[in-house]
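Appendix B, Record 12. Input sequence as logged:
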Amino acid sequence: MLGRKLELIAEDSVNPQTAVTKAQKLIERDKVVCLIGEINSASGLAIAEQANRYKVPFFNTGCNSDALRGKNCSKFMFHIEGCNTMYTKTIGTWQKAENKIKGAKFYFLTADYAFGHDLYRVSSKFLGDNGGINLGNDMVPTNSVDFSAYILKIRQAKPDFVYICLAGVDQTNFLKQYKEYNLPFPVTGGTMDTIPFWGAGIDSISGYWQSLWYHGLPVAGAQAFTKRFSDKFGMPPDNQAWGDYVGAKIVLQSLAETKGTDTVKMVEYLEKGASFDILKARRGSFRSWDHQLLQEMYVVKVKDKARMKDKWDIFDIVQPVPGPNESLELIQPTQAENACSMA
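Logged structural output:
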């Protein structure tokens, strides 16, 4: 790139304290041009503070918290991952059109840390604003093994939908155990990651969900990426792999277009509406005021087992949200919902 060799350096952040140390090491010792990655929102905030301090762009590819785009937004942080509001509005827009919210009773299970609290806040508000009834919410400790007590409460509450605001292995464990109880109440949720659903297996999942990206997307660039990834790793890319790959593509285009590694010029380029091929039907660009990537997401339906091509083939894509003729702002937080001020 620009006559210079590209080098990728990988570190594990582990927790916010370690994330600060690793970010400082990458910036001060390794002289990186940018940072890409992270999953945990608390660690993402810690990295963003260092990125802002040193004026090094940080491309968030896994943190969902609305606060990172709101009160904790910063000039040098850009968000490829969707925020909790985007996930909630994607499935919620479809549910509303299908008359599945107004008058329906929801029972929530929420991860008991910042991500879960934030997701429950935006999900319960959206459902309530559109006529949904909140029967209750249980806070679930991270890495819970036994969900039986929560499932028994669900059975007693008799909701129309079980709404999970869980992540990672907690999604997997809940879905497996819920299936064993054979309750008639369908499960939906505020977010969905492919790997936890692969871990649960096709026999433990059902219904309609939202996805930031899925390897079955019928777009030429997405299919080419899926083939290269599958040939190398023996499995298709999940939504997190997509985010990291697109993050690298965005960085390379930005360096090429600004003709150098001046990070202030890179930020200006991104804020002026630069357009990127993000392996979706519609191109993506960053909002100037909160640096969230404007993009379509997808409503997906768990596939009939008999139609699966392999164990990774678990979804059919129902529709993109927003639709082809709708504004990409449709699923985004408004400035009133998520005020951001970049000093």
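The longest strand covers residues 133-140.
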